[in-house]
Amino acid sequence: MVDVLVIGGGNAALCAALMSRESGANVMLLEAAPKVWRGGNSSHTRNIRAMHDEPQDVMLESYKEEEYWQDVLKVTGGITDEFLARLVIRASSQCRDWMRHHGVRFQPPLSGTLNLSRTNAFFMGGGKALVNAYYRSAEKLGVQIRYESPVSSIEIRDGKFIAAYVGAERIEAKTCVLAAGGFESNREWLKEAWGINQYGESPADNFLIRGTRYNNGVLLKQLISLGADSVSDPTQAHMVAVDARAPLYDGGICTRIDAVSFGIVVNKNAQRFSDEGEDFWPKRYAFWGRLVAQQPGQIGYSIIDSKVLGRFMPPVFPGEKADTLEELAGKLGLDPKALQETVKTYNAACRVGTFDHTILDDCHTEGLEPAKTHWALPIDTGPFYGYAVRPGVTFTYLGLKTDDTAAVRFKGVPSSNLFVAGEMMAGNVLGKGYAAGIGMAIGTVFGRIAGTQAAKAVKNQSLKAEYAAT
């Protein structure tokens, strides 16, 4: 029997395994994926949002607790647990030295991400390098790692973890950390959650999965059915507008279309449906997948002109290019007259001040619904560019309710030996919306808490056994 069983193989799971092992516990980690695909969604990440009161190596200026909290409050619309959110915020300022100790390296932000230089620390080599560093450290410390070991169910008795099943194999452990991700790869569950829309469609049929194909939510569904307290809405998720040509799984960061803020986005009827300039892209990009999901056919089209080229991270695959809007509409499969009318109306509403893509500038629209509140420039300079986008689901927010000990709760009572971290509990902080890098902050902070608490529970069990023996 192992002391701590960690179920999952991404950032949160690895942080939990490392912390437990550093605390002296015997640890086994079960990763559902083959070794080559290890790391789950974490392998696609780039950075962590971190509080800091003064400049720190690759992080400029300061990003203090209250500003960080206001960012969380804004993107979630207040659907967040303030106590746990502030816990993550404060603890995020203390993670990076520990991360470096386990081989993670940081670098200054790249071109196109400069407005994150004050708030986010970027990983040298991206998420894959971070995951590999953690696995190397875990192996060196003696963590038992098993790949291709999806857990089909766990055994719970009176809110206490007993064992996990990998197929027919039963694995007992004194404590367990659940860090197996959300259910974004479970198409049937997504369809059940989203239902049929007003167009008679099942929106989830057209969702692309930005991350791993191994996050099927098997244990999440089982725990909820066993009475574990849950949090958030099954339709809420980190959903991004991604290139409609992206692969079904593991498209990752490179499929994101970042041109949205600098032009307009229309649906298949060539009609705008939201404010493209509401806020900086790192605070807004994860809203756009959900917005597109609510459009007919779950598809949208980002339209820009030549004036804004070079203002955003260019997409990996080129979009459609045309000298006229009529030609562009034809290439995108849109009604040319409808697109021209939409652009004409938008252009007439633009009130151009001093354009500055690095601040919330004064270029806006008047008398237009929906408005565009910043970076509103007329689309009038060819050639014109268009990118078809679909909803890209990174991870779902429905998860297990927890507290500052990371314990799974059953009817309000925290389990003595079952803990949760990462995407399986991120909904406590993220009721909706997203800010770049906060998922890694939640996973790192709660992975560390869960690992520490699991090792502590093992020691408590040993002390009780020794006391009973005397």
UniProtKB/TrEMBL annotation:
Q: Which domain of life is it from?
A: Bacteria
Q: What is this protein called in UniProt?
A: Tricarballylate dehydrogenase
Which Pfam families does the record cross-reference, listed alphabetically? FAD_binding_2
Which InterPro entries does the protein's record reference?
A: CobZ, FAD-dep_OxRdtase_2_FAD-bd, FAD-oxidoreductase_2, FAD/NAD-bd_sf, Succ_DH/fumarate_Rdtase_cat_sf
**What keywords appear on the UniProt entry?**
FAD, Flavoprotein, Oxidoreductase
- Read off the Gene3D superfamilies from this record: FAD/NAD(P)-binding domain, Succinate dehydrogenase/fumarate reductase flavoprotein, catalytic domain
PANTHER family in alphabetical order: FAD-DEPENDENT OXIDOREDUCTASE 2 FAD BINDING DOMAIN-CONTAINING PROTEIN, FUMARATE REDUCTASE
Cofactor (UniProt): FAD
Q: Name one GO molecular function term.
A: oxidoreductase activity
Q: Which residues form a coiled coil?
A: none
> In what residue span(s) does the FAD-dependent oxidoreductase 2 FAD-binding domain sit?
3-431
